[in-house]
């Protein structure tokens, strides 16, 4: 009998500081450089040895793993050797995340947009956002660490624009002891669905006034002063897990992404960082022959990364911004913690694939919500951030940045249902003024009430059905009855 084999390869991981270059051992919980407070990345010192396997051989191994029956390899860890090759099979938590479908835009939608594209529906992950990719990695690592170090309680903490806390609560509740989960949310700045998720998973939810950036500062102090595990994207293990998005997309297109444009919303910039890093790893290993192009998208209400790259190279100064309310609420971040990672990876991308390989596009709130509505009226399940990607693509088409025979992949980072309140505000024309969204009444779609509430009183179900059918026919203008 042929048996699936869990990879035997093990790497040697360490944290590397992007500020001072110092390294720190991977079996510690560190989220900022203990020496200079800089942003960290994880590096596998053994990675160069993976090049002893040819790109062709890797492709065969990875394609072979598509049929695995080992649960630990069914999710992000199909790409085990490239992510966190120190965790063992027994530590890996898989809750059904990853391998989300890439759905081609309907021909009618493609015609409206003027470019051919697809959505990668990362809202089809278990907690309904891409955050599950990173959480699967971070929580698997924590399990490994607890086992190695015999820890009997680890307090897991995160600040969130909604989806990180949903994912953190889900994954830690699956593991249970020794993990305990506390999430900090900006009061009133997450959707009711996103608030319900950690509550449902049994996490302790603490609400603070302010916006995400304020909660993030609180969590940073907590992580620096007390022994807690931080589950924000400052946690470099999360970035590793999120690299799987790029790897899956490359595999989906049979390892050729040379004519692909990837559109990614930028909030804390963890996702776009991870996606670039994932493609670079595949490129370095010869698994893909050419890098795709990456477009980051930001709303004009939270656009620090756009502002930075909008300037000529010698005039660029990094400056956080104060955010204004945004329908792309999960990306409403004025001081993205991963910005130094973006700068480092964008440079690598541009060095390898030319100046067009990494660009940032800015869109307006009105464009974001209307792009989402447009997408969803053509069979998609895009969230507002997915709408932001489509708005970015439409802007890029207008700016002449998209070649004729290229194809775009848009990240719908969450499921539309998480952000349905923004759709409702659009349909009901109830946006507070600072969103700067003016609904177009032609796009509104509202339920129509037929019959009075007491219409069923005193008649039998057959009579009621007859009455109902007549009311529907009248409303739809079906005036000719078909004789049978
Ligand atoms: C977190 C999140 C983003 C922003 O991603 P970053 O990694 O913070 O840039 C976008 N969309 C959704 C749905 C999210 O949950
Ligand atoms: Zn440092």
What is shown here, in short?
The protein has 484 residues and is α/β, with parallel strands linked by helices. Helices cover 37% and strands 14% of the residues. The chain is globular and about 75 Å long.
Structure description:
The protein is an alpha/beta fold. 37% of the residues lie in helices and 14% in strands. The protein has 15 helices and 13 strands. The strands form three sheets. The protein has a six-stranded mixed beta sheet with strand order 4-5-13-10-11-12, sandwiched between helices. Helix 3 crosses helix 7 (236-242). The longest helix has 19 residues, at 131-149. It is globular and about 75 Å long. The chain starts with 12 loop residues before the first strand and ends in an 8-residue tail after the last helix. It binds pyridoxal-5'-phosphate and zinc ion. Pyridoxal-5'-phosphate binds next to helix 9.
């Amino acid at each position: 009998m042929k048996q699936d084999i869990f990879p035997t390869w093990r790497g040697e991981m360490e944290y590397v500081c992007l500020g001072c270059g110092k390294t720190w051992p991977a079996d510690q919980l560190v989220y900022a450089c203990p020496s200079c407070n800089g942003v960290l990345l994880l590096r596998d010192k053994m990675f160069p040895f993976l090049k002893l396997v040819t790109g062709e051989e890797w492709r065969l191994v990875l394609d072979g793993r598509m049929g695995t029956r080992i649960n630990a390899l069914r999710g992000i860890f199909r790409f085990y050797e490239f992510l966190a090759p120190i965790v063992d099979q027994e530590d890996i938590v898989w809750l059904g995340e990853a391998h989300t479908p890439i759905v081609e835009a309907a021909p009618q939608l493609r015609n409206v947009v003027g470019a051919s594209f697809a959505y990668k529906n990362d809202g089809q992950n278990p907690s309904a956002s891409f955050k599950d990719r990173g959480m699967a990695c971070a929580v698997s690592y924590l399990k490994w660490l607890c086992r190695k170090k015999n820890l009997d309680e680890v307090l897991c903490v995160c600040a969130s624009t909604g989806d990180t806390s949903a994912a953190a609560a889900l994954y830690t509740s699956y593991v249970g002891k020794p993990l305990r989960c506390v999430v900090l949310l900006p009061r009133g700045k997450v959707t009711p669905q996103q608030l319900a998720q950690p509550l449902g998973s049994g996490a302790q939810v603490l609400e603070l006034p302010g916006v995400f950036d304020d909660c993030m500062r609180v969590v940073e102090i907590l992580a620096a002063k007390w022994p807690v595990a931080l589950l924000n994207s400052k946690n470099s293990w999360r970035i590793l897990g999120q690299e799987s998005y790029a790897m899956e997309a490359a595999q989906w297109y049979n390892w050729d992404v040379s004519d692909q444009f990837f559109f990614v919303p930028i909030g804390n910039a963890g996702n776009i960082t991870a996606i670039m890093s994932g493609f670079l790893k595949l490129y370095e290993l010869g698994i893909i022959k050419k890098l795709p192009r990456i477009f980051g998208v930001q709303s004009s209400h939270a656009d620090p990364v756009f502002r930075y790259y909008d300037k000529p190279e010698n005039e660029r100064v990094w400056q956080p911004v104060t955010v204004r309310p945004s329908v792309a609420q999960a990306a409403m971040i004025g001081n993205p913690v991963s910005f130094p990672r973006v700068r480092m990876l964008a440079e690598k991308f541009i060095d390898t694939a030319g100046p067009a390989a990494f660009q940032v596009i800015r869109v307006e709130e009105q464009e974001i919500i209307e792009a989402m509505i447009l997408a969803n009226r053509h069979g998609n399940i895009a969230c507002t951030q997915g709408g932001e990607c489509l708005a970015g693509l439409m802007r890029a088409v207008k700016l002449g940045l998209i070649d004729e025979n290229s194809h775009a992949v848009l990240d719908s980072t969450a499921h539309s249902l998480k952000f349905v309140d923004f759709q409702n505000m659009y349909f009901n024309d109830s946006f507070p003024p600072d969103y700067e969204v003016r609904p177009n009444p032609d796009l509104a779609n509202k339920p129509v009430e037929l019959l009075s509430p007491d219409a069923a009183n005193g008649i039998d179900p057959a009579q009621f059905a007859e009455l109902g059918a007549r009311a529907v026919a009248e409303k739809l203008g079906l005036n000719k009855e078909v004789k049978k």
